[in-house]
Amino acid sequence: MSIDIVLTVNGTRRTIPIADPRVTLLDLLREQLGLTGAKKGCDRGQCGACTVLVDGRRINGCLALAVSLDGADILTIEGLAQGEALHPVQAAFIAHDGFQCGFCTPGQIMSAVGLIREAQAGDDPERVREAMSGNLCRCGAYAGITAAVLDAQRAVNQGEAA
Amino acid sequence: MRPFDYVRARDIAGAVAAAAEPGAAYLAAGTNLLDLMKGGVSRPTRLVDITRLPGLAAVTATQGGGLRIGALARNSDLAHDQAFARAYPAVAEALLSGASAQLRNAATAAGNVMQRTRCPYFADTASACNKRRPGAGCEARGGETRLSAVLGWSEHCIATHPSDFCVPLVALDAVVEIASPAGSREVPLEAFHLLPGDAPERETVLEPGELVTALRLPAEAAAFAGHSRYLKVRDRTSYAFAVVSAAAALRLDGPRIAEARLALGGVALKPWRARAAEAALAGREPDATAFRDAADAALAGATPSGDNGFKIELARRIVARALTLAAAGTPERLPALPASAFAPIPGAASP
């Protein structure tokens, strides 16, 4: 029996039929909505490649049942840029070489957006590394990622102050 | 993942009724349950979604001066609540030392208490496990036992409870509030999880259909706020389960310890309250000798369950260090790496 849920995905409110309650948010995004930015790395909540924001909070899309999120607001990497203008976190990852192969990057960037919203890390690189520990990078681009997050956080906070 | 019926509960009575039938399981965030379902370890035939139950995420002061943590309060919301972290700093530190930011954003307070062991033989359906299939045997015996128990284990099961959150909670006399088909009841957290004995498949005192609705801290718990720490040794700096952990909380009266609270994680199938160690500390001056005596008392009954005898001495040292850190005083702000064993002890000469 199919269940209809309503999700706001990257700003667009839509009614989505869930044919099988086993569908995770990650599978819904990738297979049903064609949003393949969030990646299926481990599919067990260990790698963070599937990180998206749900109601403004970063979570692992692979460990959430879509049917349970009825009514939620979802932000994925596809909804981050404003037209051709990159989000400050996207721009900072490019400026600091915060990736190599790129597979983990959508998850890293969405996690960083969530981290900045949480406002717990401040400008302490150790706190940023700790707060990003749910995102693995097998290429080992961590040094660039940490620099990018710190830089993007400054840009976001200055943008808000301006 | 096996197929299941999905039921969205609208109130507690409806949830309890829907979950009372065999094969049913409650779904909150699902961060542990979905992982186990994907691995074929958990095979519920019905999921009762409790995420929409009204009022269950609230964190409220109780009439007696304690605190009631709603079952659906998210780990990160609780840990980042400044009033909560000031009153119960070891609980906040434990929460922030567990899992990742993404998981803490989703995972709930009751889900943390209800999470299953991370024993690799429990997680692997190709291995024998008495917890998964009673009578099948325990392949952890003679296997990789780094995360296995050294206290309270039996020949049938040597798994550990993986929670960080529960360790300071049990030290602070937390109580579990439960909704039952017949009404409601409450159980001290210390008595909530069961040691394996000869029935390791039975993990908690919950009866079919029963639902954890809240965790309650008594008023006395906040009296330890000035001297409370959680310390956790793990195999990587962040995002790893405890090999050994300890929550230490002291109430000082002048130069002496009026009351001590101590619990260990990663060593048993339940958060392990070390009451003998607490008794050994009462009335003593908070010094290295007292802490070493407490550590010896805490681990007096410990025995290796495999090639993990190192955990006993490790636990003694973690207990002594957690007590030393607690005596030095709760830091103004939690350290960058919560519960890290590498953090310096305030006021001590560097090694």
Greatest interface by residues involved: A-B, 35 and 31 residues
Main beta-sheet strand count, sense and barrel state of chain B: 5 strands, antiparallel
The Cα radius of gyration of chain B reads 20 Å
Record the strand order, biggest sheet of chain A. 2-1-5-3-4
Describe this structure in a few short sentences.
The complex is a heterodimer of chains A (162) and B (351). Chain A is an alpha+beta fold and 162 residues long.
Which characteristics define this entry?
heterodimer; A: 162 residues; alpha+beta; Ubiquitin-like (UB roll); DNA polymerase, domain 1; 2 domains; 5-stranded mixed β-sheet; 5 helices; globular; B: 351 residues; Uridine Diphospho-n-acetylenolpyruvylglucosamine Reductase, domain 2; Enolase-like, domain 1; 5-stranded antiparallel β-sheet; 4-stranded antiparallel β-sheet; 13 helices; 20% strand; oxidoreductase (chain A); 2Fe2S_fd_BS (chain A); Aldehyde_Oxdr_Iron-Sulfur (chain A); Aldehyde oxidoreductase iron-sulfur-binding subunit PaoA (chain A); iron (chain A)
Structure description:
The complex is a heterodimer of chains A (162) and B (351). Chain A has helices spanning 25-32, 88-95, 105-118, 125-131, 142-161, and strands at 3-9, 12-18, 51-54, 57-60, 73-75. Chain A is of the alpha+beta class and 162 residues long. Chain A folds into two domains: 3-79, Beta-grasp domain (Ubiquitin-like (UB roll), Roll), CATH 3.10.20.30; 88-161, DNA polymerase, domain 1 (Orthogonal Bundle). Chain A has a five-stranded mixed beta sheet, covered by helices on one side. In chain A, strand 3 (51-54) and strand 4 (57-60) form a beta hairpin. The longest helix of chain A has 20 residues, at 142-161. Chain A is globular. The N and C termini of chain A lie far apart (51 Å). In chain A, 46% of the residues are buried. The mean pLDDT of chain A is 97. Chain B is of the alpha+beta class and 351 residues long. Among the domains of chain B are: 5-52, Uridine Diphospho-n-acetylenolpyruvylglucosamine Reductase, domain 2; 223-328, Enolase-like, domain 1, CATH 3.30.390.50. Chain B is 28% helix and 20% strand. Chain B contains 13 helices and twelve strands. Chain B has helices at residues 12-19, 33-38, 75-80, 82-87, 89-96, 101-106, 109-114, 120-123, 166-171, 189-192, 275-281, 288-298, 310-328; strands at 5-8, 24-27, 46-49, 59-61, 67-70, 175-180, 183-188, 211-217, 228-234, 242-253, 256-265, 272-273. Chain B has a five-stranded antiparallel beta sheet with strand order 4-5-8-6-7. In chain B, strand 6 (175-180) and strand 7 form a beta hairpin. In chain B, helix 11 runs antiparallel to helix 12 and helix 12 (288-298) packs across helix 13. The longest helix of chain B is centred in the last third of the chain and has 19 residues, at 310-328. Chain B starts with a strand and ends in a 23-residue tail after the last helix. The model of chain B has no long low-confidence stretch (mean pLDDT 97). The chains are: A alpha+beta (162), B alpha+beta (351).
